[in-house]
């Protein structure tokens, strides 16, 4: 059995070693993994403007992105790959509510430039390495 001083040394040693590992892994995540997975170098001024438009128009009031937001409208993480640029621009620039499948979207009537910026943002989001999220639907054929 451990003596009191051995138990204390064991506790302190274990705590210090695991805390050092925790700090090391956090450091590599923040300085190496996140920039690599998000392709930080592709964040252009257009992508940033697209994000500002995304935030200021409350798109997350209806949509989810990276799994976050509301469940009224489609998940948009991979929308660039799924729908392509022309379709997304048509939804954003439409002067009447976009609703080919029944539920209505806000008729934003964006300018071409604003729509292009949102497309750049959605394209960048779609290229983030998310370990396979969102999963492909597991539907019976
Ligand atoms: C009032 C709820 C609402 C808001 C707010 C909203 N949308 Fe939508 N959006 C929808 C609905 C509902 C659809 C699906 C329409 C359909 O296919 O019939 C949609 C469709 C889309 C699509 C096509 C998705 C697909 O897979 O077909 C894109 C892209 C999109 N929205 C982007 C945006 C962006 C960007 C914003 C913010 C500027 C936004 N939406 C705000 C409700 C909303």
Could you characterize the architecture of this molecule?
The chain is mainly α and 141 residues long. It folds into 2 domains: 1-38; 41-141, Cytochrome Bc1 Complex, Chain D, domain 2, CATH 1.10.760. It has 5 helices and 2 strands. Strands 1-2 form a two-stranded antiparallel sheet. β1 (64-65) and β2 form a beta hairpin. α2 packs across α5 (112-126) and α4 (85-93) crosses α5 (112-126). The radius of gyration is 22 Å and the shape is elongated. The protein starts with a helix and ends in a 15-residue tail after the last helix. 13% of the residues are buried. The structure holds heme C. Heme C (HEC) is lined by residues 54, 57-59, 61-63, 72-74, 76, 79, 82-83, 88, 91-92, 98-106, 108, 118. Heme C is lined by residues 54, 57-59, 61-63, 72-74, 76, 79, 82-83, 88, 91-92, 98-106, 108, 118.
- The beta-strand count equals 2
Multimerization state: single chain
The low-pLDDT segments are: none
Present as ligands are: heme C
What share of the residues lie within helices? 40-55%
Q: Structural class, please?
A: mainly alpha
Instruction: Report the sheet with the most strands, covering strand number, pairing sense and barrel closure.
Output: 2 strands, antiparallel
Rg from alpha-carbon coordinates: 22 Å
Count of discrete alpha- or pi-helical segments spanning 4 or more residues: 5
CATH architecture of the largest domain: Orthogonal Bundle
Overall pLDDT: 95
Assign the CATH class of the largest domain.
Mainly Alpha
The share of residues in extended strands comes to under 5%
Helix/strand order: HHEEHHH
Within the CATH hierarchy, at the fold level, what is the topology of the largest domain? Cytochrome Bc1 Complex, Chain D, domain 2
- Cα-to-Cα separation, first versus last residue: 62 Å
Kindly report the spatial arrangement of strands forming the biggest sheet.
1-2
What number of domains?
2
Task: Name the CATH superfamily assignment of the largest domain.
Answer: Cytochrome c-like domain
């Amino acid at each position: 059995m451990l003596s009191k001083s051995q138990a204390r040394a064991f506790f302190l040693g274990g705590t210090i070693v695991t805390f050092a590992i925790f700090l090391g892994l956090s450091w590599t995540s923040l300085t190496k993994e996140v920039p690599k997975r998000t392709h930080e170098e592709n964040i252009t001024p257009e992508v940033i403007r697209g994000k500002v438009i995304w935030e200021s128009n409350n798109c997350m009031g209806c949509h989810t992105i990276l799994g976050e937001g509301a469940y009224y409208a489609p998940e948009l993480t991979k929308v660039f790959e799924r729908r392509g640029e022309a379709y997304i621009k048509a939804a954003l620039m439409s002067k009447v509510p976009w609703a080919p499948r029944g539920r209505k979207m806000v008729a934003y009537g964006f300018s071409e430039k604003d729509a292009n910026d949102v497309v750049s943002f959605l394209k960048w989001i779609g290229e983030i390495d998310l370990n396979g999220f969102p999963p492909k639907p597991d539907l019976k054929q």
